[in-house]
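S.,

Sequence below, as promised.
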Amino acid sequence: MIPSIHKQGGDTAGLIAYLFGAGRSEEHIDPHLVASFDGLAPDPGRDPGATEADLQQLLDEPLHLLPAGTRPDKHVWHASVRAAPGDRTLTDTEWADIARRVIAATGIDPGDGAGCRWAAVRHADDHIHLIATLVREDARKPDHHRSGKRAQAECRRIEVDYDLYRVAPGDGTAAKRPTSAEQHKAKRRGRDRTAREELRETVRRAAAGTASETEFLDRLATAGLLIKLRTAPSGDTLGYTVALPEDRNKDGAPIHYAGSKLAPDLSLPRLRERWTGAPTQATAPQAGSPAASRRRATGAVWQAVLLVDQGDDTTVAALIAAGGEVLDALAKTSAAHTRHQLRDAAAAFERAARSHIRAERGQDQALRQAARELVHGGPALGRGEDAATGAMLIDMVFFLATAASAWHAKKGHAQQAVAALQAAQHIRAAYQTAAAHPMAVLQEHGRHMPRPLELHLASMLRDAIPNLAEQVLAEPGWPALAATLADVQVAGHEPAELLTEAIGSRELGSATSVSDVLVWRLRHLAQLPADPGTARPQTAHTRSATTPPITTKTATKVIGDGAHRR
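The prediction came back faster than expected:
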């Protein structure tokens, strides 16, 4: 149940005409009253003998209790209350009760017998509009201070009483929701999303990893958006608006949205905080393939996960916001088979990136640079090292999302905590798709390793992580982890030490497969190729092409090296 308090106005007749009219896009269906201050207000929607003027005169009558010169210019109070997506369709009687409760909670008509006059209009299945005159029957002003928060609190109680979807309490940092008119317009044109939602995603992706205002505006233009700049007399840019070329009003003019109307952190002043607070390198990012940029991003995300657990609030807020940029860049450049889930993850995480704790820019620079390199590295292929490093990065981003959710929950940021968990669910689905092939290859290698080597690696695992070893050995991913442990040792590392580092640095409780997580952490820490079919583990003596199945010779070396180290 989502209440919205709209701006006060001075035209009761105009608002009534809109509420009982067809709507801007013919979206109003059967407009009618469901409740009013006395239950007897004329209903111009269903009563042929009632007019909109009758309702307007009745609502505005208390204005005449005041001398003409003292009447408020903006006396019209307007709010809407919308059911959450997926809620059942409420009856008129239920909406009437909800209207009375919200009106009372906001202070418009607190039930003292002298409240404001009001009416509730329904013209769609999923919401009602409330209109009131801000002069009480005793000629006093109503006490409707903080009416939005009051309405929110009452709606949380209504959700429980009516067994509706429980909306997490908000904090005023959410992006503006599309209006009913925007939703109907999108539906009429056969589009899944409104223009506002499409623009929000496009602008957010364009901003990911940018180093300057010029680069940001260039990306908007490249994305095909129409751009207008608002400038001061001095010529300085004060703000910007964007429009989709095909989204036009009845006069054929493009419908522009200011960045701040898409999301609070997309206003030009807030974007400038990214560019000045933590200067991303404006020069060309480090050269390399999409796989190379993903490997470097994995390291940046890994460090961010550790800092989210340990950092101060303003630093964590910056890291979570920059993590959203990495996720946007990853979704933009991902292979086709993971793009949809990552796009949904980025859209969900967008809500988690904002709270009342303002970001202290500085330690988020590595993440922002990672986002920049992902964009400049270009789209990744769905195979080979591109796909495998993509899976490695997605796995790491999953832990960043879960860490962000835990931090928000600790701070009481309910909506952000839920959003981060929703993002994590999409990230997990993308990971399962991305990791299927490289994990299958590693598992095949592990299944064909000599039995003595497997027993040796299992013993090593038990020594390194006695509390988790049996769980890992029972997982389907154990052969892949065994193959990775063998690769780690052949590459000249001590597997037990890396295992301890991989496990001790971050929790594993949120992992579906501990063995999968350890595979990617070990391959990252040991700088092994993510795709086992791309290149062999690099040592001081070998830099060859493909990883052959583990042989008896390899097994003898691994077991021998392990015995020597012990």
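Residues 414-447 form the longest helix (34 residues).

Coffee later?
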